[in-house]
């Protein structure tokens, strides 16, 4: 065949194997801290970005979504699913991949796995929000729901906020034991708890990160005392919540993008005009975060495309100094841009 791909045809691709190599070469806590810095940089220029709620296809079993955005120079999107039942079949609840492209040419410049990267991005976003909203000196976190996201959350809060005491609870005790094993030796004092009420005792921060796709009440109003910061991660699609409505009514609520969060987040339980604060306004200093010692702050986290854009941007920067990627022959690049057919014909196998 008369074909050899040109450099223009080749797009950097980060596989799962190479993503793991990159994280280990960087160090996971450093990776989380640097990723959070990229997210914070992009939140500071929030108004530059195209913003739209993710394009979602819902089914009884889960959801498949596309999450696009652009800052005018680069375009990024993530494909992601959420299927809680998958763990019963030995599959991940969430899988993802992402693409970044140049706006001026439309050419992709990066394709990467984002199952691992989304777990890291979600944790980095949680800890970044807590750095702006949690009480000063917060060191103890209740982590309710000890599935695939739990260790990432714990390490992000350690790296960015200074949390060094964890109180773990999951309805599956084995999940809590696994989480504790995975975090052993990482400078965390870990307590396994028998229920959510026990887990929140003495906590400065409560992170809920459960997976069931249903209206649930992981936290009831009596569990949440004054001065707590709540990081609500698990409620991330219509019909899926974790907090009792009364908690929301007592909290100062911070969100990423209200048109998306009002449909998917904890605040789907509230009136459409219930006041919330966009987190980017806090990060830029235009709006205060925590304003009183006894205030309950709630980050109603559902994940937004700008955060994935930041993750793609960070990954591209890392690749400039690391060899852990492949080049995919993805883009047809004929010698004459108008002669795509000729390129195809010249690649026809010759008869023996």
TrEMBL record:
Give the EC number(s) listed in the UniProt record: 4.3.1.12
Has UniProt tagged this entry with the keyword ATP-binding? no
Top-rank taxon: Bacteria
Q: Which GO terms describe its molecular function?
A: ornithine cyclodeaminase activity
* InterPro entries per record: NAD(P)-bd_dom_sf, ODC_Mu_crystall, ODC_N
What enzyme category does the UniProt record give?
Answer: lyase
Cite the entry's keywords alphabetically.
Lyase
Q: Which family does it belong to?
A: Belongs to the ornithine cyclodeaminase/mu-crystallin family.
NCBIfam families cross-referenced by the UniProt entry: PRK07589.1
Task: Quote the protein name from its UniProt record.
Answer: Ornithine cyclodeaminase
Source organism per UniProt: Nitratireductor arenosus
């Amino acid at each position: 065949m008369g074909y050899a791909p040109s450099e223009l045809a080749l797009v950097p691709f980060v596989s799962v194997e190479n993503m793991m190599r990159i994280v280990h070469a960087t160090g996971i806590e450093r990776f989380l801290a640097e990723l959070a810095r990229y997210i914070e940089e992009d939140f500071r220029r929030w108004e530059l970005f195209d913003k739209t709620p993710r394009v979602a296809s819902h089914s009884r079993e889960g959801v498949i979504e596309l999450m696009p955005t652009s800052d005018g120079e680069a375009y990024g999107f993530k494909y992601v699913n959420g299927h809680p039942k998958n763990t019963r079949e030995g599959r991940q609840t969430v899988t993802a991949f992402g693409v970044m492209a140049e706006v001026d040419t439309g050419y992709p410049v990066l394709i990467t796995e984002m199952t691992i990267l989304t777990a890291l991005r979600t944790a980095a976003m949680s800890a970044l929000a807590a750095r702006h909203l949690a009480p000063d000196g917060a060191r103890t976190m209740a982590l309710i729901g000890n599935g695939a996201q739990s260790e990432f959350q714990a390490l992000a809060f350690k790296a960015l906020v200074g949390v060094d005491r964890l109180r773990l609870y999951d309805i599956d005790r084995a999940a809590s034991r696994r989480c504790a094993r995975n975090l052993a030796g990482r400078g965390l004092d870990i307590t396994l708890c028998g229920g959510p009420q026990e887990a929140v005792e003495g906590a400065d921060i409560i992170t809920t990160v459960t997976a069931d796709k249903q209206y649930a009440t992981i936290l009831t109003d009596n569990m949440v005392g004054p001065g707590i910061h709540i990081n609500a991660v698990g409620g991330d699609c219509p019909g899926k919540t974790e907090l009792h409505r009364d908690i929301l009514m007592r909290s100062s609520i911070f969100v990423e993008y209200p048109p998306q969060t009002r449909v998917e987040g904890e605040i789907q339980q509230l009136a459409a005009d219930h006041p919330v604060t966009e987190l980017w306004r806090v990060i830029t200093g235009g709006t205060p975060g925590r304003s009183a010692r006894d205030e309950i702050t709630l980050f109603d986290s559902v994940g937004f495309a700008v955060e994935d854009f930041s993750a793609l941007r960070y990954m591209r920067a890392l690749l400039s100094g690391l060899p852990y990627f492949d080049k995919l022959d993805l883009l047809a690049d004929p010698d004459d841009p108008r002669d795509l057919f000729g390129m195809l014909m010249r690649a026809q196998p010759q008869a023996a």
